[in-house]
Amino acid sequence: MADSKTIISIGREVGAGGRAIGKIIAERLGYKYVDTLLLSESAKDSGLSEEEFEIRDEVISGEGNYIFSELLNFWNSFTNSVSKCSQESVFVQQSETLRRIAKEENIVVVGRASDYILRDEPGLITCFLHAPIEFRRAQIAEREHISEEEAEKIILKIESKRKEFYEFYTTFKQWGHSTGYDICLDVSKFGIEKSAEFLLNYIELRK
To answer: What is the pTM of this model?
Structure first.
């Protein structure tokens, strides 16, 4: 990997702490954290508005509006056939932008089929974070101040669409299947901080 940039691609189940762990890893390594940044970068590259990318993005990020924005995004992306061509165009543009960023500097990127898009990059390390539903619904319920029953319904809804998004664009890959990633980690075994430490150790060994 000495002659290439290091790319940490993190796939995740809802409530498994993907963003939190990704940010810890990026901060410790001094890498660029790529999540919503991809929206603004893609908009600049294409000349379109950032809003066009937000409504068709794999996940719309936002403090305090997590549930509503996630569901709204997937509703727009997969149930509105009128915007299908636009959705595909946005995916192509985001893919091109992500490849450009990955060639320019070391990055940690969460979701957005990045393991597939960047599969030809020699410095790619792919991770998938998962946890039992009990752990994940407790995480979402606490963060969003809702009941665990409500949290589980949200998790199942979002993950169904996330899987649909991933497998539509990757064609031959299965979302969350262990054979598609370098390492899969049950976050409930260690918690957020120690899971990040575990992955940092793994990354160091790979580098």
So the answer is: 0.78
